[in-house]
Amino acid sequence: MTVSVRECPIQLSQRIPNMRTRTRVILHSLLLLVIVVQVSRPVCVDVPSETEAVVGNPMKLTCISCMKREEVSAETRVDWSYVPTDKEPIPIYLFDGQPRELEGPWRGRLVWNGSKDLQDLSISILNVTMNDTGTYKCVVFRQFEFDCYSPSVTNSLVINLVVREEASDDTTALYSEIMMYILLVFLTCWLLVEMVYCYRKISKSDEQAQDTATNYLAIPSENKENLGVPVTE
Please, which pLDDT band fits residue 45 given cuts at 50, 70 and 90? Predict the structure, then answer.
């Protein structure tokens, strides 16, 4: 019995680079997806508050108290106070289910600037004056409800506010933010270019493989028989 073993139109050496290119495209796509998800996903970051304000402008007193996912349903109370030198703190704002201003020289100029999940517990001072210079304290009390127990946690943050008549020329934060966005745009563009390059390489490999198969099919049948290698039992 004679068996004809015909050559495969697509060589193994052509398949290996094709598989490597596809793997590279998949890895780059996953990396780009991870970056996009990390950028767009809302997260809680414990950032410090600004400590310099300008007369006549609003000023946000930032108070961040991050919680874990299982702690988001906790009951939260926030007490804001002004701490004079060598005197008792003066309560100025309260959040206990609802934000509420308290009596004092800041009444009518304080607004709630926190988040719905109560991880950002900030307030803002409107129309800042020179008399607003001083120390502010944010005290966060949380009561958690678990199956077996109900723990409570108290955190506090102190902000030393300085009011100036004109804004200072500190551009470090602005330059840092600009560089961060430039780097993010550069990485995104680089990944897109790599993906386009890999897709084009895959398309070219597929076209070469298709041309090889077409040329093989175009060979007359009698010539195809000559390509066989006789194997005799």
Answer: confident
